[in-house]
Design brief:
single chain; about 150 residues; alpha+beta; OB fold (Dihydrolipoamide Acetyltransferase, E2P); 2 domains; five-stranded mixed beta barrel; 4 helices; about 25% strand
Length: about 150
């Protein structure tokens, strides 16, 4: 084999190895990607069925039901609601009327089965996506949504 052919074979081999590595990285990234949906988006069937995603909003007052380690509650963006079922210990800051983000899958019965529940960390913070959803629902003023995202205007 001529030296020129050897260099071409090595170059093709390196390009193939890089291509395989990039494909593996992109596949791993895609499988770990988790999207955020609001209750309104879930109600309009924008959320994927059978895939993991996050839903966020406010815990609707009067909907928290505890049965041992199973907790049922409703998440709302003030326009639509989504029933949620979670088995486990909830964060200390989890309360009715407060912001929450749950990660899990939407069941065929329309109940969101959460594997993880995150509560907001103080009185003035809300995930930007949840604040935007409340603002878009028309129930929260622009100033209130801005304050929730920024936290006391600081």
């Amino acid at each position: 084999m001529k030296p020129r052919h050897k260099r071409a074979a090595i170059a093709v081999g390196v390009l193939a190895a890089v291509g395989v590595a990039v494909a593996l990285v992109l596949n791993a990234f895609n499988s770990n990607l988790v999207f955020f949906y609001t209750p309104s988006q879930i109600a309009s069937k924008e959320a994927p069925q059978g895939k993991t995603f996050r839903v966020g909003g406010l815990v609707q007052a009067g909907t928290v039901q505890r049965d041992g380690v199973t907790v049922r509650f409703t998440v709302t963006d003030t326009a639509q609601t989504v029933p949620v079922r979670y088995e486990g210990v909830l964060p200390d800051l989890f309360k009715e009327g407060k912001g929450v983000v749950a990660q899990g899958q939407l069941g065929p019965d329309g109940v969101f089965v959460a594997r993880e529940v995150l509560a907001k960390h103080d009185e003035n913070y809300m995930p930007p996506e949840a604040a935007a959803a409340l603002k878009n629902a028309g129930k929260t003023s622009s100033h209130t949504a801005q304050t929730l995202v920024m936290g006391n205007g600081k």
